[in-house]
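User: Write out your own:

AI:
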Amino acid sequence: MLALSGVTEKEMGKKIPMWQILLVIVLALTVIIYSIFFSYGELHMPMILAAVIAAIVGALNKWKWSFMEAGMIAGISRSMQACLILLLVGILISTWKAGGIIPSMIYYGLNIINPAYFLVTVCLLCSFISLCIGSSYTTAGTIGVAMIGISIGIGVNPAMTAGAVVAGSYFGDKMSPLSDTTNLAPAVAGSNVFEHIRHMIYTTGPSYIISLGVYLIIGRGAADASLSLGLSDTLQEEILNEFVISPLLLLPVLILVAAVFFKVPVLPAMFVGVFSGLICMGAVQGIGVVDWFSIMHYGYEASSTAVLTADYTVADIVGGGGFDYMLWTVSIVLCSMSFSGVLEATGMLSSVAEGILKFAKKDGTLILVTVSSCIFINLICADQYLAIILPGRMYKEAFEDRKLKNKNLSRALEDSATLTSPLIPWNVCGATMGGFLGVSAIQYAPYAVLNWINPIVSVIYGFTGITMEKMSDEEYESVMEKRRMETEMALKTLEA
């Protein structure tokens, strides 16, 4: 259960019955699905209504509003870094578009990328950048945006491209030692980060190869040859009419990668990216300082009126971004975290996890339970961090009792929690990717092959025992001794 400061035991209610918890979950999913498919298509009001339903059930079980409100605030606080990154990426996109950086990527990409291998190229490129900088958000918000523009220019379905962007971005995010989730999972499970990364190669490697194979197959028929040449020429012509294009405008990409690679924290590194975009806006594109704040706030307004397809104009591709552009996504985060905060504070999530754990009788079912729990929390709580932390905390001792090394747990957490988060439209990651790429998670999810095949591979390994490493007797005794010492310390603290 969530530890909250400033609240007393009197504000905590009784344990909520499982049937009531399931009722909350069913009602929440019902209003979300109804809104997406049958109503106004947005997620804000359903998530607020879901939080209200959860709070009513909590109140009926004697949970005080002050405690549930503290849970909501704790959930929102946990997402604040992500919100800051989202807003800053919005500014980064606007300055890179206005500065000609992203248009230059699109222009040169149209010249050198073979449409038949486009999806493979997108996945590999996003994988490399994300592996270097450890951020799926930054990769998708810069390289990914450019790839969407190129895909439209060569007649490839943007949903396919977005899927390849997401798969590549999350491969790098998952495998990079600079990534927050790559450090969080082993920290929760009790393993070492580099041991964790090496262990993930066994499940992520085959999944990644399968994904590239799928992109190679579907990519050959993805481009519309009858449209490709005309769209590409029109887009390049309009870009040249609006921007100064130069290979030197690709330098900010290298500067951003270098900044994060040399362990500059993500927010300062992105400020460096914004600053380089402003320099390009002024020195290269001739945009006056008087317009800088407006562009950063509201995005770059492209002058081109050329139409590429029924869904896209040139202005849609080379314009946009900005602080205001990301407020929609940030507001979804706040609504989702309010709901998840009530669920965790009232113990509903831990009750579900404890109930599920009863079915884990073997190694395979334990992995299945872990993966399923991570996906479930991503669905209900819309937060990949909580989807790592809660199952990791709940199942750590179960893994140790079966003499499974901690890196097996940390791998299962990342194979599921990290990778499935962008597949859910109302999840923080799904809403973010959709906001960056202009394609909803529902549309790109079938093409984000790595993200849904990796959890399947992880479960298969669990049932077959492949790479499921066991502790030696000495390691097991050491873990049990450590657990006994922690229990004794906790008891002494309570007595004091």
Residues 81-326 form one domain.
